[in-house]
Inverse folding.
C-alpha cells in the first residue's frame, strides 16, 4: 500500500496543482481504507509519515506535503511534528511560517517534474 501511495503522490506532483485530500488519495490510489474509522485514518497517517521520512532521508522533498485534510487550509500538527523530527525546525514555528508549506510543495513539484529525477527515483 505504501508503494501505491508513493506512486500516486509522485504522479500527482508531476501532473496536478494544489494539494490532494485524504479522501481523494484513498479513492484514487484504491487504498480501500475507511477514513471514518479512526485506526484506518491513523494507519494512513503512519504510511504518509513513513514515506516522507524515507524521502527526506534520501534527500528528496516529503511527499506528504501534498496531502491535506479536507476543509483545512493546510497541514495538521502531526505533519509539522514530523518535519521537526526530520530536523527542519521547531514544529510550532514551522506551522506559523506561511512560506514553509508552500516551499515544500513547490520543491516537491520541481523535484518530481524533473524528468531525470523521475526516471531515477520513481
Amino acid at each position: 500500500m505504501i508503494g501505491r501511495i508513493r506512486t500516486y503522490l509522485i504522479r500527482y506532483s508531476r501532473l496536478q496543482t494544489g494539494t490532494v485530500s485524504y479522501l481523494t488519495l484513498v479513492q484514487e490510489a484504491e487504498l480501500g481504507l475507511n477514513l471514518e474509522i479512526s485506526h484506518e485514518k491513523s494507519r494512513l497517517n503512519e504510511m504518509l509519515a513513513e514515506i516522507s521520512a524515507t524521502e527526506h532521508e534520501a534527500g528528496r522533498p516529503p511527499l506528504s506535503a501534498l496531502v491535506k485534510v479536507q476543509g483545512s487550509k493546510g497541514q495538521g500538527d502531526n505533519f509539522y511534528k514530523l518535519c521537526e523530527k526530520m530536523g527542519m525546525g521547531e514544529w510550532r514555528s514551522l506551522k506559523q511560517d506561511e512560506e514553509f508549506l508552500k516551499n515544500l510543495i513547490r520543491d516537491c513539484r520541481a523535484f518530481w517534474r524533473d524528468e531525470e529525477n523521475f526516471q531515477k527515483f520513481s
About this structure: The CA atoms of residues 26 and 89 lie 30 Å apart.
